[in-house]
Write a structure and sequence with these properties.
Layout: H1 7-14, E1 19-20, E2 35-40, E3 44-51, E4 56-63, E5 69-75, E6 78-87, E7 90-98, E8 103-111, E9 115-120
Antiparallel strand pairs: 1-2, 2-3, 3-4, 4-5, 6-7, 7-8, 8-9
Length: about 120
């Protein structure tokens, strides 16, 4: 599972149990499943879907009170997914997407408030 956090690290980060596209059996590694985490920071609601074996990550962010969409990412070539902060009042990740000529980094804060920084290198 090179490049992605372990299942227990994602449980700690998102502070919720995931739902799975297919129920993982004891013999199926978390790497080969698609897990969806639904959680909130009080201001924004998040739906994060991770499929490590396909290098796919989707993140939908909506305003909690108005239900308006704030951000939607549908990434297909995430080769690196790192937890950069996992504390009670602060949680964030760093993802890297790569193609033949460019590398893109996406930094996302979930707590205390949503923030997204997208860079192309």
């Amino acid at each position: 599972m090179q490049g992605y956090p372990k299942e227990n690290e994602l449980l700690s980060l998102f502070e919720c149990e995931p739902t799975f596209l297919e129920s993982p059996a004891d013999s199926i590694d978390f790497f080969y499943t698609e897990a969806t985490y639904k959680f909130s920071n009080g201001n924004e609601d998040f739906v994060v879907t991770i499929a490590p074996s396909y290098s796919e990550v989707k993140i939908r962010v909506t305003n909690r009170s108005s239900k308006n969409l704030i951000s939607y990412l549908d990434l297909k070539r995430v080769y690196h997914f790192e937890i950069t902060a996992d504390k009670k009042n602060s949680s964030s990740i760093l993802m890297k997407v790569e193609d033949d000529t460019h590398t893109q980094t996406i930094e996302i804060d979930f707590k205390p408030n949503f923030k997204l920084i997208f860079k192309e290198h």
